[in-house]
Amino acid sequence: MKIALFGYGKMGKMIEDIAVERGHEIVARVDQAGLSIDYSNMDVAIDFSMPDAAFDNITGCFRNGVPVISGTTGWLQRYEEAVRICRETRSGFIYASNFSLGVNIFFELNKYLAGMMSQLEEYKVEMEEIHHTQKLDAPSGTAITLAEGIIEQGNYKEWKLDEEGKAIVPIYSKREGTVPGTHTVTYKSSVDSLEIKHTAHNREGFALGAVVAAEWIVGKTGVYSMKDVLNLK
Ligand SMILES: NC(=O)C1=CN([C@@H]2O[C@H](COP(=O)(O)OP(=O)(O)OC[C@H]3O[C@@H](n4cnc5c(N)ncnc54)[C@H](OP(=O)(O)O)[C@@H]3O)[C@@H](O)[C@H]2O)C=CC1
Ligand SMILES: O=C(O)C1=N[C@H](C(=O)O)C[C@H](O)C1
């Protein structure tokens, strides 16, 4: 498979290593806006760039018939617009705030737990995410997906950064050293706490998930999720 990398930083480089190990070829490395890009030779694009670059990278690929896997976070205010352009151009698209197998299982566990806890008024939820100090966005995309999974169970209306309230899922973001990504969801009552946690030990799980998603999307049109790729029920 011929893969184009949009974003050639920490993730782009790790994706390159894993893609090459799996027998793929990297045909483009795009790391700034405004470059002249030859889309004719790409089977699929993988975008791990920057919040203000992702939308143009993704939709540029759609308009040139290239399906996209995007893991860039912090650009989702334009997600629906990207989806519309994907459908209009009959392209293929997967966005995931987190491509690792472990976190995608954690997303499902979180929803299941939130469903049970929604019956118990004595517990109040809160979340914490810890990442490296170079991270541009807060809260993390993963924390937002987790919060949305809790909100869809009905007891909470919105998430907020560093803010508590009856119908609010508070998210506390910490930036420390080189931490690849740690997410904790905690339910507290006056008598105990119940906690689920995912700790990434490095970035390999994210990169492998993105390459597996790229292998999966080639030849398909439409908008999918990692749940489809991993066939999680
Ligand atoms: N979904 C997931 O599983 C994961 C998502 N992420 C997300 O992926 C993104 C990238 O993370 P990471 O690799 O750690 O970040 P880095 O900062 O290491 O890499 C981002 C790269 O994008 C480059 N860039 C700048 N402008 C553009 C542009 N217009 N088009 C393409 N590339 C550009 C930067 O170049 P320069 O430095 O020269 O500006 C940099 O090399 C982040 O949004 C992060 O949150 C990260 C890990 C997992
Ligand atoms: O910026 C990162 O590093 C990461 N970003 C993603 C996020 O915002 O959730 C995924 C992972 O946690 C690493």
Molecular structure report:
The structure is a single chain. The protein has 233 residues and is an alpha/beta fold. It has 2 domains: 2-99 and 204-230, NAD(P)-binding Rossmann-like Domain (Rossmann fold), CATH 3.40.50.720; 101-199, 2-Layer Sandwich (Dihydrodipicolinate Reductase, domain 2). 34% of the residues lie in helices and 25% in strands. It has 7 helices and 11 strands. The chain has helices spanning 10-21, 54-63, 79-88, 101-117, 141-151, 204-217, 226-230, and strands at 2-6, 25-30, 44-47, 68-70, 92-95, 124-131, 158-161, 168-175, 182-188, 193-199, 222-224. Strand 9 (182-188) and strand 10 form a beta hairpin. The chain starts with a strand and ends with a helix. The mean pLDDT is 97.
Q: Topology of this structure?
A:
Blueprint: E1 2-6, H1 10-21, E2 25-30, E3 44-47, H2 54-63, E4 68-70, H3 79-88, E5 92-95, H4 101-117, E6 124-131, H5 141-151, E7 158-161, E8 168-175, E9 182-188, E10 193-199, H6 204-217, E11 222-224, H7 226-230
Parallel strand pairs: 1-2, 1-3, 3-4, 4-5, 5-11, 6-8, 7-8
Antiparallel strand pairs: 6-9, 9-10
The structure holds NADPH dihydro-nicotinamide-adenine-dinucleotide phosphate and ligand LZUJQKHR.
Ligand LZUJQKHR binds next to α5.
Give a quick precis of the structure.
The chain is an alpha/beta fold and 233 residues long. 34% of the residues lie in helices and 25% in strands.
Second CATH tier, the architecture of the largest domain = 3-Layer(aba) Sandwich
The CATH topology label of the largest domain is Rossmann fold
Order of helices and strands: EHEEHEHEHEHEEEEHEH
Helix content: 25-40%
Class based on secondary structure composition and strand pairing: alpha/beta
What is the general shape? elongated
Oligomer: single chain
Strand order of the largest sheet: 2-1-3-4-5-11
Mean pLDDT: 97
Q: What is the class of the largest domain in the CATH system?
A: Alpha Beta
